[in-house]
Amino acid sequence: MRILIVGAGIAGLALAKAMEQRGMEAQLIERQREVQTAGAGLFLPGNAVRAIEQLGLFEDVAVKAVPIKRQLIFDAGGKVLNTIETEDFWRGCGPCLSLPRKEMQDVLKASLRRSTTAFGRSIASLVQDSAGCLVTFDDGAAAKYDFVVGADGMHSKVRELVSLGGSARYVGTVCWRFIAKNTSGIDCWTAMLGSGRTLLAIPVNRTDVYVYADIAIPGDGAPDLPPDSPLRSLFKDFSGPVFPLIDGLSAETPIHYGPIEEVRLKDWINGRVVLLGDAAHGCSPNMAEGAGMAMEDALVLAEELSRGTDITKALRAYMERRRPRVDWVQNQCRARDKMRSLPALPRAAVLRLFGTSLYKRSYSPLLKSF
């Protein structure tokens, strides 16, 4: 089969790897001239690490990652609201790991043996019939494929070309992300909740920590705030352990700003075109399941294609298998976002009394194999 994967992020690379495990190969294209991952950390819950193991890459990833054994939630003043022993919860599924996103993508890319990746190339048009898809690229070249996979993220060009849904929807929150020196001694998943604001820090190696900051700004569209917004003043009422990472932020540190968005579609398939990962079901990052859902998607799609059935039936079977699990994650993300937006006192009470049970409720279905 001739297979085109549009997008060479975690979703596209994981699919190429899963296909190679089953005797297939693919051509990947990526519109960026190089992987754009500076300033981005990646937290992988146990189900995501299980998917990495099934891709045969656990040892390659683990050697570059930090084990995350605990989750701590503080209020803005530094009082502990909840502690989750994540190592115990995920035992039997997979450890929780954290690392720079680029390290994860590098491991996936290096693992490919037969598939090819072309950076700086994008899809311009797509015409399909019962026999396949004719794709024209941005340089005017064209090629025919048996099917095309859109793994090109929240703002998927493939999704647009085959009319599978509209734009990603702004969910009322904007965020800043960066990697800094771990001067606060952060050794686990560490969040602080303030009034309409969140700070999160996770170690990604022995010296660095990934920092995420968000602010709720309701409205129909994301405000166009500059990436260098004064984070110190926006979070000045926060204390340790996370705020010192912002207070000591160097002017040279790259900071990445963007809206939090979601993609919810009625269908992920149009003929011989299928969507994968964020292109199909992007959601808020509060469950840290973007990479995990994408890699699970990849394994399931490759498995269905390897059965030797009709391609369109394989694509449909993939969506039917994945839909209930993805819907659960998206619905839990919405519920958790609503809980975070509660006033400080009732939110603190909920987390102290029910935080552990809410965590288990959100993640327990993901302990099961997909």
Relevant terms:
single chain; 370 residues; alpha/beta; FAD/NAD(P)-binding domain; 7-stranded mixed sheet; 6-stranded mixed sheet; 12 helices; FAD/NAD-bd_sf; oxidoreductase; monooxygenase activity; FAD-bd
Task: Walk me through the topology.
Layout: E1 3-6, H1 10-21, E2 27-30, E3 41-44, H2 46-54, H3 58-62, E4 66-67, E5 71-75, E6 80-84, H4 86-89, E7 97-100, H5 101-111, E8 116-119, E9 123-129, E10 132-137, E11 142-145, E12 147-150, H6 157-161, E13 169-181, E14 189-194, E15 197-203, E16 208-216, H7 231-234, H8 243-247, E17 256-262, E18 269-270, E19 273-275, H9 278-281, H10 290-306, H11 311-340, H12 344-367
Parallel strand pairs: 1-2, 1-12, 2-8, 5-14, 12-19
Antiparallel strand pairs: 3-7, 4-7, 5-6, 9-10, 10-11, 13-16, 13-17, 14-15, 15-16, 18-19
Helix pairs in contact: 1-5, 1-10, 2-10, 10-11, 11-12
Q: Could you describe the 3D structure shown?
A:
The chain is an alpha/beta fold. It folds into two domains: 3-168 and 262-367, 3-Layer(bba) Sandwich (FAD/NAD(P)-binding domain), CATH 3.50.50; 170-258, D-Amino Acid Oxidase, Chain A, domain 2 (2-Layer Sandwich), CATH 3.30.9.30. Helix content is 35%, strand content 27%. It has helices at residues 10-21, 46-54, 58-62, 86-89, 101-111, 157-161, 231-234, 243-247, 278-281, 290-306, 311-340, 344-367; strands spanning 3-6, 27-30, 41-44, 66-67, 71-75, 80-84, 97-100, 116-119, 123-129, 132-137, 142-145, 147-150, 169-181, 189-194, 197-203, 208-216, 256-262, 269-270, 273-275. β1 (3-6), α1 and β2 form a beta-alpha-beta unit. α1 (10-21) packs parallel to α10. The longest helix has 30 residues, at 311-340.
